[in-house]
Amino acid sequence: MTIAGIPQEEATAPAVPDPAAAVLYVCADRGTLMPGLAAERAEEEGRTFAQQRGLTITDVVTDEFGEPDPGRREGWQRVRALAEAGAIASVLVRWPASIAPEGAHELRHRETDWLQERGVRVRYTWAPWPRRTATSGEPRAAPPRPRTDHAGDHRVMTGRRRRRRALPWWAWWQTWLLGAALTALALVILRPL
Q: Distance between CA atoms of 190 and 193, rounded to whole angstroms?
């Protein structure tokens, strides 16, 4: 109650998770020869990743691989419930396709955005991915540097945006000779007509 005698609503403070609290989410394909191998490796990599970074895995959540929409998976719904309750600060997944396959990347972005809005980071545990996270704040890998080809006379761009290679002088000369030869051949063939 306030001094004026008006009842005051009590606001509960939002739950603040331990910054080291993480849930390990495993959604791996069940192979026919070794059905549990992919899931075992994903869990092992996740535990190693957490140990190296001082994270505490509070729960391991698994799902069957196959359903592209993570919102329809029981395990992912549990991850969302933990995030909503404020029980976790991070979700550890092996790679982005564990959340949603590349063909349904918009579903993955929807889920990672939803987690970010609640202060939960998505972290990838597979060896090439640890520096790439779905949230800002984590350093990202530097873009690949341009490299030279085997001849070393011009640069080849690698990465998303590829540029045309500059042709060496002899390639231009060959192109001109080929064009001239084709023109002469066409004149010889078409002359009798």
A: 6
